[in-house]
Amino acid sequence: MSRCPNCGKGSLFVRFWSLRVRDGCEACGFDLRKVDTGDGPAVFVTLIGGAIAVFGMLFTEVAFHPPIWVHFVFWLPATVALCLGLLKPFKGVLVALQFHNKASQA
Questions:
Q1: Among 59, 70, 78, 88, which residue's Cβ finds the most Cβ atoms within 10 Å?
Q2: What predicted TM-score, i.e. pTM, was given to this entire model?
């Protein structure tokens, strides 16, 4: 998911923790400057991560009836961690899909 969509060997992102896509693949030289995922990864991560977090919160509330501070202390950081953890893989998948479908910004 974090590899060049052309060769599968070079790194897609500038750094391990970065979401910025490289200008070109260091292994095959493929030009990655035209890659533009826009807000796509954020939308999918918000929908999927939010659905998982809300289901977890509702299940916890119905099953255990904890005080509201428990939800804030546990579910708020869990939601942030889930969304941040999903963002880079989803961006990598959308870059790969853009390459696979030959979609570019002319």
A1: 88
A2: 0.86
